[in-house]
Amino acid sequence: MAHADPFSTSTMLNASHHLRFAAAREPISEGYPAVAPPHPRGFSVKFPPPGFTPSPSPLTNSFFTALTPKMDVLHDLKVRPKRASNDGVIADIRFRLLLDDRKKQERLQTQQKLLGITDDVDTLFAATILRRFLHIITDKYASYVARRGIAVFNKKKKEAIYERILHYALYIARDKHGCLALNDIITDADDLYYKNKLFDVIAHKAILLSNDAYGNFVIQQVLKLNDLRCKNNIVASLRGHFVDLSIQRYGSYIVNLLLETEESMVVVVEELLEGDMLMRLTRNVYGNFVVCKALRVTQKEMVRTDLYWGLVHKLKPFHNPLRRSRGSNSWTQFNPKSFKNAD
């Protein structure tokens, strides 16, 4: 009997019944694949072998533990909302949070003392800080570890942290705890290159930060450092917005601060004198104090008498109503003779 052709159609159909196909969820091969499939965008991706679990060092575990909130307190707030309305339970939760904050602060203070001793320890902490940078730099206590690291790390590690600060500067500046950390970093920065880079980022976004509840404190801190180049850049960014800033709570802080130095004061007052917006400012709870501050500094300095008398001329028709208006007590400090003597 002749042998069947192994490549004939009938032979292959008969053989197909004996083939075993893998199920959809069954792994084709056990263990780590020999060649990983290419990433859709061309990046190489490495998959850890099955059962792989990282084993961080005790120092890293301690650092993460210090950053982790107490879940039992959060459980009390979520699971027992009715009981949480009781004054006794609320007081208990607040006390436990306070104790947790103290323990957390003590742990982080201990870890700060480890920085700068050996390069191996510094490398470990630098890697941890960079890996969870935003979480650490915006934490009330953990940010002190990052700031201590900037002070004692070698140049390479410092630059890595400074680069991360530059990248997230706006986010940090608008955070409740981050703005305080950023202010200290800017003040204590010993690297002139990165300090100027931070100044540039802040000055470029001065309008955004000036109107922010926390960002305005960063602008104030930078202005108080009296860096002429940075101050000029901030004034240039805010030019044309001084009236709008003056009627906002946080923006008015910045305008009042700019009125305290001669160079920026001239720019601000000249803009306030433009058009008919001055009366609008006097009727605003925040703008009222800006106008009074402008009158006070121009009257005191008398470097540019035209600015003072320009304000007096514009305000003269409304002086008496302003002195009688509610919430305008600041106007009582000005001598009425100044307005009477105005041409």
Largest sheet: none
Distance between the termini: 131 Å
**How big a fraction of the residues is strand?**
under 5%
- What would the principal axes of the Cα set say about the shape? elongated
* Helix and strand run: HHHHHHHHHHHHHHHHHHHHHHH
Judged by helices, strands and strand pairing, the structural class is mainly alpha
Helix content: 55-70%
Number of beta strands: 0
Mean pLDDT: 74
Radius of gyration: 33 Å
Question: Which spans of ≥5 residues are poorly predicted at pLDDT below 50?
Answer: 19-48, 51-56, 68-85, 90-95, 324-329
Number of helices: 23
Labels describing this entry:
0% strand, mainly alpha
Short description:
This protein is an all-alpha fold and 343 residues long.
Task: Please write out the topology.
Layout: H1 9-16, H2 58-67, H3 71-79, H4 81-84, H5 87-112, H6 119-131, H7 133-137, H8 143-152, H9 155-167, H10 169-173, H11 178-188, H12 192-204, H13 206-210, H14 215-224, H15 228-238, H16 242-246, H17 249-258, H18 262-272, H19 278-282, H20 287-301, H21 305-315, H22 319-324, H23 336-340
Helix pairs in contact: 2-5, 5-8, 6-9, 8-9, 8-11, 9-12, 11-14, 12-15, 14-17, 20-21
Write a structural description.
This protein is mostly helical. The chain has a domain at 239-343. It has helices at 9-16, 58-67, 71-79, 81-84, 87-112, 119-131, 133-137, 143-152, 155-167, 169-173, 178-188, 192-204, 206-210, 215-224, 228-238, 242-246, 249-258, 262-272, 278-282, 287-301, 305-315, 319-324, 336-340. Residues 8-338 form the PUM-HD domain. This is PUM-HD domain-containing protein. InterPro entries: ARM-like, ARM-type_fold, PUM-HD, Pumilio_RNA-bd_rpt.
